[in-house]
Amino acid sequence: MLVGQALGFAGATVVLVGMPGPNNLYISLRSLTQGRRAGVVSALAVETGTLVYIVVTALGLATLVQASPTLFTAITLAGASYLAYLGVQALTAPTFDHADGIQAAPLGRVFRDGVLVNLLNPKATLFFLAFLPQFTTRGTDPDQLRTEMLLLGAGTLLIGLTLDLTYALGADAIGRRFRSARTTTRRRNQVVATIYLGLAGFALVSALR
């Protein structure tokens, strides 16, 4: 890959990965409601999902999804369903009258949810199916193509992790006021649930187009 091509890939990746979507909002919401540690764990979880995408793409399995619109729609619908589940989970979470009484989700569950949010994220799927292959060398042998995909994936992972941690730390700074505000956790849960359900609705509309 030429230097100019690599810079073009890095710039476009920063824009695409940095745009608000399910991954970024999941990380931000965890930081807002649970603090920096949960935000960092969420960022690591999302990039664990990215690592899975890198391996799948390098092995050529992504072409199966690309060749099957039905399978891609199924992934999108599963993602919408999982975001809706997180929204309902926020609505039904235990509530307390004071900020000190917030019952944080275990970090293991935070990590699991982050991985699934990314794996079922249609934006991530499209990135690895449609965007990443554009920067590979045409007509190369399978081994070289696999190497290029792994290198591009590694670059994506590094950029994604940097941006994700930025979201996590920024949201934590804002969240300190959010968590200390004199509002009940029921109201906070309603805000979180509204965002998740809104994302689920957007994903559902995209899948049914």
Q: What keywords describe this structure?
A:
9 helices; globular; 209 residues; 79% helix; mainly alpha
Describe the fold and architecture.
The protein has 209 residues and is mainly α. The chain has one domain (3-68, 97-181). It has helices at residues 3-18, 22-34, 36-58, 62-66, 69-91, 107-119, 122-131, 142-180, 185-208. The two termini are 36 Å apart.
Order of helices and strands: HHHHHHHHH
Q: How many domains make up the coordinates?
A: 1
On the 0-100 scale, what is the average pLDDT? Answer: 80
What is the overall number of helices?
Answer: 9
- Helical content stands at over 70%
Taking Cα atoms only, what radius of gyration do you get, to the nearest Å?
18 Å
Topology diagram in text:
Blueprint: H1 3-18, H2 22-34, H3 36-58, H4 62-66, H5 69-91, H6 107-119, H7 122-131, H8 142-180, H9 185-208
Summarize the structure.
The protein has 209 residues and is mostly helical. It is built from nine helices and no strands.
